[in-house]
Amino acid sequence: MAPEVPAVDVLNRYRREAELADPVITDTPADAALAWWPRDLFGEPHLHTLRDVPLRVITEATAGWS
User: Fold this and answer.
1) Does this model's pTM top 0.85?
2) Per-residue pLDDT for 66 more than 70?
């Protein structure tokens, strides 16, 4: 996101993405393999199951909290 995007907009976009992800997370077994990986952006997968994804998001979102 561009630096000039207000924090409230960033949080609203984050919340919207979470709402879209909720049904997928609810309806998919935690040990299911990922159906897709953006190799063009991140190279070979380093996350392998659905469980890995929200754990990574939590880790990144809370990095630096004390």
Assistant:
1) no
2) no
